[in-house]
Write a structure and sequence with these properties.
The complex is a heterodimer of chains A (225) and B (301).
Chain A lengths: L13 H34 L4 H16 L2 H16 L5 H26 L3 H9 L4 H31 L11 H11 L7 H32 L1
Helix pairs in contact in A: 1-4, 1-6, 1-7, 1-8, 2-4, 3-4, 4-6, 5-6, 6-8, 7-8
Chain B lengths: L1 H27 L4 H12 L11 H7 L1 E6 L2 E2 L3 E3 L5 E2 L1 H13 L2 E6 L5 H6 L5 E2 L7 H4 L2 E3 L4 E10 L15 E5 L3 H9 L4 E5 L2 H9 L5 E5 H10 L3 E14 L2 E3 L3 H16 L2 H9 L1 H4 L4 H4 L8
Parallel strand pairs in B: 1-5, 1-6, 9-10, 9-11
Antiparallel strand pairs in B: 2-3, 3-4, 6-13, 7-13, 8-11, 8-12
Chain lengths: 225, 301
């Protein structure tokens, strides 16, 4: 225990503070994930349209998200909106906006890929049965596309949870920041604390992300029958 | 049905365009920012037209002050095991808050975001081991200093380096990338061979393994190191330009700045910063460096 610096974990309310930090990280990422899933599906459908204006705009949006580091986006939304519009967004709201902005683009691209990969004869059969375009989309194409999406979107969700560590830059104290605070506060008395604390953070992130893998496996099995 | 999907698509499209436009606006509009803040600030804040900051009276009447501090820089600003902010900067912050008669909200800041927090008025004061530099003084207003900072060099007891001239041709000096020590030695002593490391931990290991003759860093860091590790001595406690650490407020926030300055002068009479040092820094630096590090009453010796 001493060598790993795990004793530091049980000093005062350190463990509770770490859990609180994890709660903060999950709160931000899960709201953003929920928004991204909904908006991402709509955006993905939009990207499959042949209209050149829609294509160009969605392309620009996607490229902005790909090129801009999330950190820059965070600074833009948190500090930039205050400079330009005078809005006083709180740090959590700014983080949710940035993560949803990012998640929607990536989710949309995944949805687009999944929709395109549905074979053409599925559309043709649906139309031959007299279904309208939206009936075809919502009852034939999207349900098939979603099955392919599961593993990819789980990957995106866990990535979003882990990337929340960036929000410390705009003053949100989440799990990684709490761990740094604990390590630094004890650097004289327990110089080895870093190992134990980071190990704990690893376990916490694992506990946070593991349910999504289980859910994905469960859904894949359920839908394969 | 056909129409509904079209309407939906149009709605999403508009939303997307708006989002993109707002971001593009942020990126491109830096220079024109002050104009547009002026128009929106009227609505957000009736008493001040084109400023991001809150004046002393506004802070007092709101009953709460926001202070940006470090939350992981022991012993200057850190959080203890009960979740309370502590340290040399925080001790001073708490005194300011008490004398103002308001509540405090500490905001955890990073070195890279301190200036931004002030430029957008997201905090009223930054008390985060903020070294006064000309470049920063263009963007924020510094109050009177409350601490000295300089470079220091630590070396093993077997061969204490008391002056950089003692270094022989093949002696190397450890620095951490991106620190003032690196910039200073590269500029002023281009002949000294530097060994660069990214992290404090790696630099420490290199010195302990005898890979270099000495290690140059902020003097607060090397002094703390020598006190914690037997067999090492700070041969050069002060090197290069002496800088100071001071509170900072948003550019132009004169009422708050003047109040902090007069407060620092008044506190000097009761030797407040010596008491602050003894309460927060003696554990790390011992009593010996008190006079070297503390600036009392805003007067640098």
């Amino acid at each position: 225990m001493q060598a790993l610096g795990l004793d530091v974990l049980f000093k005062g309310s350190n463990l509770l503070r770490l859990l609180g930090g994890l709660g903060k990280a999950l709160e931000i990422s899960l709201i953003a994930v929920a928004l991204s899933l909904i908006l991402g599906v709509l955006f993905g459908v939009l990207m499959t349209f042949r209209n050149p204006v829609i294509r160009a705009l969605s392309r620009i949006y996607l490229e902005i998200v790909r090129i801009m580091p999330q950190m820059v986006l965070l600074f833009l939304v948190f500090f930039g909106t205050t400079r330009v519009f005078g809005w006083d967004l709180n740090a959590e709201a700014a983080s949710v906006i940035v993560f949803a902005f990012w998640g929607t683009a990536e989710m949309g691209d995944l949805v687009r890929g999944a929709i395109i990969s549905v074979p053409k004869h599925q559309y043709e059969s649906a139309f031959a049965l007299g279904m309208t375009k939206s009936q075809t989309y919502f009852t034939i194409i999207i349900p098939q596309a979603i099955r392919q999406l599961i593993p990819l979107s789980i990957n995106l969700i866990t990535r979003m949870i882990k990337t929340t560590s960036l929000v410390m830059m705009i003053g949100v104290v989440e799990v990684l920041k709490v761990s740094q605070q604990i390590i630094e506060a004890n650097r004289m008395t327990s110089p080895n604390a870093a190992f134990g604390i980071y190990l704990t953070v690893f376990v916490l992130y694992f506990i946070a992300c593991w349910p999504f893998s289980i859910l994905a496996k469960h859904l894949e099995r359920k839908w394969s029958n | 049905m056909k129409k509904s999907i079209f309407v939906k698509a149009l709605a999403i499209l508009t939303a997307t365009v708006l989002l993109i436009a707002s971001f593009a606006g942020c990126a491109g509009n830096e220079s024109g920012a002050s104009n547009s803040t002026a128009s929106t600030a009227d609505k957000a804040d009736s008493s001040t037209a084109d400023v991001v900051y809150r004046t002393l009276d506004e802070i007092k009447s709101s009953g709460k002050i926001k202070i940006g501090v470090f939350s992981d820089k022991n012993p200057f600003g850190y959080v203890d095991e009960n979740g309370k902010y502590q340290g040399y900067d925080v001790y001073f912050a708490n005194r300011l808050v008490k004398d103002l008669g308001v509540d405090v909200e500490f905001v955890s800041t990073e070195a890279a975001s301190r200036v931004e927090f002030l430029e957008t008025g997201k905090v009223d004061i930054v008390l985060a081991n903020f070294t006064v530099t000309d470049e920063r003084a263009e963007k924020v207003d510094f109050a009177l200093p409350y601490m000295n900072v300089a470079l220091g060099v630590v070396s093993p007891d077997s061969r204490v380096i008391k002056s950089l001239d003692e270094l022989k041709a093949n002696d190397e000096v450890i620095v951490i990338t991106g620190t003032t020590a690196e910039t200073y030695l590269t500029e002023k002593y281009p002949n000294i061979k530097l060994q660069k490391y990214d992290t404090y931990a790696n630099a420490k290991t290199a010195l302990e393994n005898g890979q270099a003759a000495a290690w140059a860093n902020d003097n607060t860091e090397v002094i703390a190191y020598a006190l914690q590790n037997k067999g090492y001595t700070v041969g050069i406690p002060e090197l290069g330009s002496k800088d100071t650490i001071a509170p900072a407020v948003s550019k132009g926030n004169k009422t708050l700045l003047d109040w902090i300055n007069s407060e620092i002068k008044t506190l000097g009479k009761e030797n407040f910063f010596h008491a602050d040092y003894e309460a927060t820094l003696t554990g790390t630096y011992g009593k010996d460096y008190e006079e070297k590090l503390v600036v009392e009453g805003g007067k640098v010796n």
